[in-house]
Amino acid sequence: MDRTRLHALLNRESAEAERRNPRSRAAYARADHLFGRVPMTWMNKTAGGFPRYLAGARGARVTDADGHEYLDFCLGDTGAMAGHSPAAVTEAVHLRYARLGGATAMLPTEDAEWVGAELTRRFGLARWSFSLTATDANRWAIRLARAVTGRPKILVNSYCYHGSVDESLIVTGPDGTGTARPGNVGAPCDVTLTSRVAEFNDLAGLERELAHGDVAAVLMEPALTNIGIVLPEPGYLEGVRELTRRYGTLLINDETHTFSAGPGGCTAAWDLEPDLLTIGKAIGGGIPAGAYGLSAELADRLLTRTDLDLVDMGGVGGTLAGNALSVAATRATLEHVLTDEAFARMGVLAERFEAGVLAGIGAHRLPWSVSRLGARTEYRFTSPAPRNGTESAQAADPELEDFLHLYLANRGILLTPFHNMALMCPDTTAADVDTHTEVFAAALAELAG
Ligand code: PMP
C-alpha cells in the first residue's frame, strides 16, 4: 500500500465530503448543547470529521439532510436489519401507540407470550424476559448466572463487544493474562476482579481460566463480529460447550449480531446448546427491544430461590422493559419481516456481496480477507482471516478504512462505521450489491494508481 497515495486520496475524499454535505456540516457546527456535538458520543466515529444528518429512511435506503440517497449496508449496525420502517412494524407501532394507545403502562400484553414462543421456536431456550437493549440483556443474564452458580466471575473473549457491560471490558495482555481494555471509562474496579478472558478459538486458554473454578458464565458471540468477523474453527464451539459443562460454568450466547446467521442465529444454524441467550437491536425492527432466554431448568431454579428479589429492586429489570410498544414491534418484526424465508434471501445476497469483494481483492492481489456470517459480510486488511480478536485488532488500518468509507459514502453507499461491514436486509436487491461491487472496485483501482 502506497501510504502517500492513500493520504492524498483520503484528503481528496474528505474535501469532497465537505463540499457535498453543507447542511450536515452546519447542523454539526451548531450542536453546542450536545456532549461532543452529537446525540451519542460514538456518532463522532465517522469518516470525514462530521456525521451525515438523517432526513429519512425506508427499506435499504437512507436519505441525508443534504438530499443524498444512500444504499444502506450499515443498517444501524444491525438495529435496522429488518430494513428501515418496514410496513408491518409501522402498522403495529401505529396500532399500539395511536389507535389502541398505551406504549408503557406496567401491564403485560399478549404479544409478549407470542414473542416468547417464537423465540423458543427459533433459539430453543424455553423461557424469555425482555429488556430495551442488548447491553441490559447481557447485564441481567450475567447477574442471573452469578446468582445461580454462586460464582463471582464472567469469562469473555479478548476483543469481544457485548455493549457497555463492565465485566466484558477485558483483553489478553502481551503476557497472555487479562488486563483492562484500553480506554475503559470510569471502571468501577479492576476488571480482573470480576472477569477472566480467553482468546477466541483457543480451547487450551479457556480451560486454563475455567480451571480456577470461579467462573459463573462464559459470555460469548458464537462468531466474533465486533473486531471484524472471526469465525469459529471446526470443533471450537463444541469444545467450549464441553469445557463449560465440565467446569460447572454456564454458557451465554450473545446473538445480537450473529442473528445474521439465520432465523435462530448461530445457535440454531450450528445446533448450539447455550444455557442462556441474549439478543437485542434487530428484533424490534428499529424500536428499542432486547431479550434474554434461559432454559426451563434454570428458570425454575431461579424462581424458587426466596433470597433473590426478582420482582423489585434486586438488580434485574427496567421500568420500560417489556413495554407494550417494544413487544408489539418485536412481534411484527419476527412474524412478518425477519422471517425464515427473508433470511434465506438475505444470505444469498451476502454471498453475492462476498463474491464481489473477493473479485476486487483478487484483481489487485491484495492480502485482504472476507468473512461472512449469513446476511453479514466483512472484509479485513489481512490474509488469511484472523483467528482471534487480538490478531484481528492488529490488522486494523484506520486510515485505509476511513478512505474506503468516505469513497463509498461520497458515491451513495453506507458501510458500518467501526467496521468494513455490510449487512443485507429484506429490501436489499442484487442490483444494490452489484453497485457496491462496482464502486469498491473503483476505489481499489484508485488505490493501485
Ligand atoms: N452485544 C453485541 C454482540 C453487540 O454487537 C452489541 C452492540 N454492537 C451489544 C451487545 C450492545 O447492544 P446495545 O448497544 O443495543 O445495548
From TrEMBL:
Swiss-Prot/TrEMBL cofactor(s): pyridoxal 5'-phosphate
Alphabetized SUPFAM superfamilies for the sequence: PLP-dependent transferases
Alphabetically ordered keywords of this record: Aminotransferase, Pyridoxal phosphate, Transferase
GO molecular function, one term: pyridoxal phosphate binding
InterPro entries: Aminotrans_3, PyrdxlP-dep_Trfase, PyrdxlP-dep_Trfase_major, PyrdxlP-dep_Trfase_small
UniProt keyword annotation of Transferase present: yes
Gene3D superfamilies: Aspartate Aminotransferase, domain 1, Type I PLP-dependent aspartate aminotransferase-like (Major domain)
Record-stated family: Belongs to the class-III pyridoxal-phosphate-dependent aminotransferase family.
UniProt protein name: Aminotransferase class III-fold pyridoxal phosphate-dependent enzyme
